[in-house]
Structure prediction request, 525 residues.
Amino acid sequence: MTSKISAPDLTRSNKRQLRKISPFIMLSLGCLLVIPAVQGQVTQTTTTVTQNGDTTTITKVIMVSHTTPAINYRSRADSTKVDFVGTSLMAGATGRGEVHARSGRLDVEAHFDHLRPASSYGQEYLTYVLWAISPEGRPNNLGELLLNGDKSGLKATTNLQSFGMIVTAEPYFAVTRPGNLVVLENQVRSDTKGNPERMDAKFDLLEKGAYVITGSGAPPVTYYDRKLPLDLLEARNAVAIARASGAARYAADSFNKAQSLLAETEAYYGSHRGKGAIGTVGRNAVQTAEDARVLAIQARDQEITANRERSLANQAQASQQAAMTADEQKVAADRARALAEANASQSQQQAQAAQQEASAARSEANAANAVAANAIADREALRAKLLQQLNEFLATRDTVNGLIVSMPDVLFDTGKYTLRPEARERLAKVSGILLAYPTLKLDIGGHTDSVGSDEMNQELSEKRAASVRDYMVSQGIPAAMTSERGFGKTQPVDSNDTAAGRQHNRRVELLVSGDVIGTKVIAVQ
Prediction:
């Protein structure tokens, strides 16, 4: 099958402003979910169109089918498991997933191991995306897979009831059509519940480089530095790809907004703003650039179609005029001119309507971004204030997981877990500060040096942590917002070979965290 590369299918949030876009050509062939991937041959042809001095290259891709199983989860009322296996692009990759049935939806939880960086397939590839593919060939972007070493995990929700799953390497997270760099695909396990139906569907994957409409035919590569935040790199990539797709000409408002958001992201990074601020603006830049790219493809397709229709009309007119009288030629010319003007007017009205819808969507996004930016600023200010207040009574440091308040060993009786009066006084002041923020969470950890047996050190660390927790609860701290744990000698902060080092290791640490100060740690199990 040959199909013209056009704008990707849109997510639900984009359909309203971009519903005019020409859809990809889909073919349904029966029962097994068919996904052209790296195992199938892919060839391409190109056509060059020149209009007003600008040259546009249209790429067509011919794909050979690749199969992967789809599972019908409609009949399930609980959950079921599936495996993921690596394709020839990443044969060592593995994964496991679990699908939970909910009312009217399905929750997907997936975990992956032995993943290589996406940039190993080209510097333009920065991330991985997990897709759910319906038997009819409709892709659903379930979310971005962020690497932690060679591992990743994701929780997502889909309204699809029957689907297969694949993982692809992509230039940024907001893509609306999967590329053909398929690195993993789902596999039915022997204990998979549900109905692993055999369903065929013709499904098109974008060939590498298909995001580029003009120029040399190679995807634009932005400057890649592993030390830069991923959100900034993806924003650079998205804006560069939108520019290469002609967005500056065909969707100027959206593209200029994307450039402005990218500049704001660069400024946030240059001024050492927090990851939350950089991530919020950077991801908005990616989404806005993707919208501009899709709008540009729509407008370009409309322009090419209008030019082709005018050319065909001119050819038909020339043939007819050869056999017509002068009067007949005049009537036919007037009719053709009116038809061409009507078609041009209709195309212009459609483009204006699309721009108005996009403008309304941008206004809504700007308002939401302003609220998010203010919330981030408030959390950062409160975090700094709380850090300053706690430092007045106990040494406190700021970490990615929250504020860590450290109690030295000298605040306890030697070798015991009894709090000295000075410790009680300081903890009372700390409790008074924390009572002003009832949504904070307080995790208390006890630590010892390496002197003595493991059992003795573990017991002492647990009792010291419990003593601190009990005293703070007696000062009004809600028990529900606290927890304690003893670590014994397992987490030293200094060498146990010196007296000073051992004294540093004998401590109790209070980890203060919570949404109100911008700390929310979610670990995928």
Q: What stands out?
A: The chain has a mean pLDDT of 79.
